[in-house]
Design goal:
With 257 residues, the chain is mostly helical. It is built from seven helices and two strands, in the order βαααααααβ. The radius of gyration is 21 Å and the shape is globular.
Amino acid sequence: MLETTHHWLPIIITFYVPLSFFITYSIAVENKHVEPGFPYISYTGTTPPESCVFGQLLNIGAVLAGVIIYTRYLQGQFHVESNENRKNLKHLNTAAFITGILTIFGVSLVGNFQATIVWEVHLIGAFLAFGVGFVYMILQTIFSCMSVSLDRKIEGNSLCIRVFRIALCVADFVLFIILGIAARLSISKGPGPGISRLHWSSDEPGYAEHLVATISQWLVAFITLIYFATFYEEFKHFQMTAPQVTPRTPGNSVVPG
């Protein structure tokens, strides 16, 4: 039976998603659809043809993230089930899995519903990707810290990893607050009459606040990816077995293997 390891997936997604952003950013700047600098990530994928590339690349990224989230869930269940008196950790692991699925669903919405076309749906996707994504990080960090009391400990879940995850959560929270405040201030000032927010430049009102908001958004996205990368060390210590296909008889009874 095929056995596979998944420790390379957290590293792949950490490089894949920024590369996706750079590709769509390059296409958008080349076509003069956005101003060079730090536009919102969504603005680099809101106009064709980069919107098509943006959606496709984010869909692939969402699938990769989904595999990581599911693998992490299975890893957590394996360690928790050996401790019958730790049902709270089992529920915590399940809650993290559900929030993780909602997060990648949000990423898919962001990629497929452009900010300038279907703003309401795009905003829901952004909330799921960043807001619920932050909750996923919090739940995983709590699980990581509480799991040290398990009889069957998670190998690779070192003190350094746990402290680093806490630091990432704090940084993500601070940047998320800065993003919300700066975005609201920039919107209230606006780029000026008749000027699209896609072409906001430094000589227009609200640009400083706009720049703080966009840089914060990029940093929040990168922090989330770095958090996924922290699973690398733990994923090295187990392997997964592929599902086995078993034929059934006409009476629906399973044929013994």
